[in-house]
Specification:
With 150 residues, the protein is an alpha+beta fold. The chain has a single domain, classed as RRM (RNA recognition motif) domain (Alpha-Beta Plaits), CATH 3.30.70. Helix content is 25%, strand content 15%. The chain is built from five helices and six strands; from the N terminus they run H-H-E-H-H-E-E-H-E-E-E. The protein has helices spanning 21-27, 31-36, 63-70, 79-84, 106-116, and strands at 51-55, 86-90, 98-102, 120-121, 124-125, 127-130. A four-stranded antiparallel β-sheet has the order 2-3-1-6. Strands 4-5 form a two-stranded antiparallel sheet. Strand 4 and strand 5 form a beta hairpin. The longest helix has 11 residues, at 106-116. Mean pLDDT is 85; it is low at 1-10, 136-142 and 145-150. Residues 50-133 form the RRM domain.
């Protein structure tokens, strides 16, 4: 059954395949609750980028769950925005329980971070930060690092 989906700037017009603002607000921890949780200790959102780093993800969470949450921050009518929307959920190894979400622009990512940080999914609150770029660290020119003293 195909649904007609219209998207505008109004939050209420977000397609039903995505989580509603009301559901997000209902499922999100309060600022006080966030401050009291160890998982948010030393929390820093980081420098704004169009990619989000999400951690503290319950093992039952699937990629489609994250797409349901973060899909509301793209213009579904725009093919370009749909193509830029990307969710990578790590299910095993060192990065298990973490994900990267690519959004079309910084503004969407900032709104997504504000709305979803502390949202409880499968009994675990999401910890959302801006992803750091994969640039190599600049410390390679520091003469004190990497050299052995004789």
């Amino acid at each position: 059954m195909a649904q007609q989906e219209e998207v505008s700037d109004e939050d209420d017009d977000i397609p039903s395949e995505f989580i509603s603002r009301r559901e997000l607000e209902k499922g999100r921890l309060s600022r006080d609750e966030i401050k009291r949780m160890s998982v948010f200790k030393n929390y820093e959102p980081g420098e704004p980028t169009c990619r989000l780093y999400v951690k503290n993800i319950a093992k039952q969470v699937e990629e489609k769950d994250l797409k349901n949450i973060y899909g509301r921050y793209i213009d579904i009518a725009s093919e370009a925005e749909r193509n830029m929307f990307d969710v990578i959920l790590m299910k095993e190894g060192r990065m298990k329980g973490q994900a990267f979400v690519g959004l079309p622009n910084e503004k969407s990512a900032e709104k997504a971070l504000r709305d979803t940080n502390g949202y409880v999914l499968h009994d675990k609150p999401l910890v959302v930060q801006f992803a750091r770029s994969a640039k190599p660290k600049q410390d390679t020119n520091d003469p004190k690092k990497g050299q052995k003293k004789r």
